[in-house]
Amino acid sequence: MNGKNASRSRKARQQKQVSEEDELAELERRTEEMMKAYDESKKAGSSSSTKLKRFDELPLTKKTMIGLKKSSYVEMTDIQAKSIPLSLGGRDILGAARTGSGKTLAFLIPVIERLYKEKWGPGDGLGALILSPTRELAIQIFEVLRRIGTAHSISAGLVIGGKDVTQEKNRLGRMNILVATPGRLLQHMDQTVDFDTSNVQMLVLDEADRCLDMGFQNTIDAILENLPKQGRQTLLFSATQTKRVKDLARLSLSSPEYVAVHDEDNKKGYMPENLQQHYMVVPLEQKLSVLFSFIRTHLKSKVLIFFSACRQVQFAHESFCRMRPGMPLMCLHGKQKQTKRFDIFNAFTKSQHAVLFATDVAARGLDFPRVDWVIQADAPEDADTYIHRVGRTARYNAKGNSLMLLLPSEEKGMLASLKKKGVEPEMIKARENKVQSINENLQGFLFKDTELKYLAQKAFVSYVRSIYLQSDKSTFDVTELPLEPFAESLGLAGAPKVKFVKDAQAAKKRAQKLLEKRERYGKPSGTQEEDEAEASNKVRTKYDRMFERKNQGVLSEHYQNLIADDEEEDSEEETETKVAKAESDDDEEQSSDEEEMTREQAIAGRRKADSSDSDSSEESESEPEKASEKITFDQEQDDEDDFITLKRADHTLDGEDSLQTAKESELSKRKLQMGTSKKRSAAAGLRGLGEKLTFDDEGNAHRLYEMQDESTLGDARSAAQEFVDRERQALQQSDVQDKERVREAKREKRIRKRDRERQEKEGEDAGPTVMLAPEDDREDGYETPDFDLGDDDQAEDESDDEEAAYEQEQYRPNKRMKPTSTLEEDESLALRLLGGE
Ligand SMILES: Nc1ncnc2c1ncn2[C@@H]1O[C@H](COP(=O)(O)OP(=O)(O)OP(=O)(O)O)[C@@H](O)[C@H]1O
Fold it and tell me: Where is the composition biased (Acidic residues) (predicted)?
């Protein structure tokens, strides 16, 4: 370079610096003005922060504006307009706004702006930390950060479980912004030598209430200990924001601004404006059939279906795939490898028509475009979970529908807790004749496929356990579950025996007895519900047993004293139980081994006479559309596919019962006669319902294959019965063999595991020890009540085997994991400067 050119480029650099300095000074002035105006209007009692509507009206750097324009962001959403000015002014924020309302930008813009204004560079280390409760959400935040930070030269990294920890370690020291899941971040804080967090300027908690709840409590507290308390700005965002003083104290917030977009009074603002919410009361044993029928009738939709446990997700996915409903089916849950999770997340994002079965790992924050329906196959654990789940549809300006399936026993409690949040879904019903029963298909699949059968058993146990562990006992009662019919609906020959159901039943009995006793002797305090809760957790003492016998009257006063003492102990126990529940997320179902699984009935001979198919379909053909019906169901070209196509949602369903009567009265006589004659012939034992008959010229019914002369051919029925018995025995035998095989596999797995552990221990003794992250890093702690089978369970199939090995790998930093292409891409992107270097 000659001297002329060198001096020209020096000049250009100086000019650039001067213009940057000018820009920053100007921005600082505007920000100060903005904050002054805000403080004054606040003093004057005005609730609105600023009147700005567009991003270009904010005091933002040119570089940030380039990123926003590239992403076509022009107008701000409410939460952005209210919170960004305050965040730019350095305030701590508690941001609450409905799902899909743009909270991500509301915290990312201030993060980038602050580091830019403070001239943060590679040598300054970590300046901002963004925490997300799930890996997918962290990836998504990182993607948005990349997009809007495209013109900046600040380095950003993604630190999530399921990736190569060693690779992360090497790069961590160079990052200015980290998007992380709590468990993995803490692991780095503990293990990575040059990972310095003492200079962090900004901390963001997305889905803050979740990050701060019990599942993450210890991890977040440990992270906070590593961050500076003074001078740090903290932003918390969620659709269901926490305002609990205890939480805020943990974060050392300084006079936080509470920025809420929803209307606190009518609470309607919790929900997206364009969301149509529905619920349906469905007996447990019909759930899968209803779901399958729903899918069959919504082939041109994008549907997200939530279950409470991984095994259910797996089972529904596996079994529905076998039935080929006619659209792509995917599943997402915490037991998948991270690469697979990431691929599925991407595939569903890009899909136009597809079904994604998921646990609550997909409930929060994920921004899948154009989801038409969110179905909650299992009821959410609470109203907040409901809000986040349904928020996966109707995002930003889009429209969407949600449908929650409730068991009859859950309806009252769930609707009441939703109502407290101002959420009132409308009831709809499916046409019974349009619900295609899939029980027999499932039985058939399970008969042929042992793997699927064991998956069904695990799904059964997982579901029952999830109900058992629910904290809202007034809504979720495990003793009310119809276990046998449920097992049958999964295709199982009988309900696996589950120990904790017996425990729950015993606890319920004890609770009832205790209540009776208290009624008899009088009890000083507590509502009935409190009493029940206490009693159900209560350990039966010798005094209980004593007083269950004869002499209560004699020692009544003494007994009351004993009860009073017990109550104090019980309340302590209750707290412990809750903590234990929160900690059980990861190792749920480890005890599944202990669950005795027996099948008391064989499939053969148990085919339930199913009358609904032919009879009810006839009913529906003549079913008129009712003007009084809130929701009616369209007849599509293919009549069988017609299920619950939504037509109108503008009036109430008060007349449901009368509707049924009206339906019958409007049926043609011929249809009614056909219906009754079929029922009559079934009742007369001529045929099982669903069995085919032929009619002769006189109109007499005959079976399709009839014996010419039964007396000469012997008793065909007893022969048939013998056949059924034989089949049943064969099935039971094969069940025993299957079980033995699985036991053997488990035994081998345990031996392998022990060997591995021994080898590891020997290795460890030889070298330096490594401090490991807490258990909850494995799943990022986020499996809500996702009570999945633990290690023992994983032993049962090869894929789970790999998964277990993979999870262990995370904790051995000296062993390299196979890098994966997609995450690799992200990692390299993380390394790049945001300015596109
Ligand atoms: N100002 C804006 N203009 C246009 N689109 C926007 C704007 N802000 C956000 N969006 C879009 O709205 C969608 C939802 O945004 P985002 O994921 O940030 O919502 P959220 O409030 O964080 O939702 P959740 O509570 O579910 O986490 C995204 O697709 C995003 O691109």
Answer: 564-575, 584-597, 612-622, 774-806
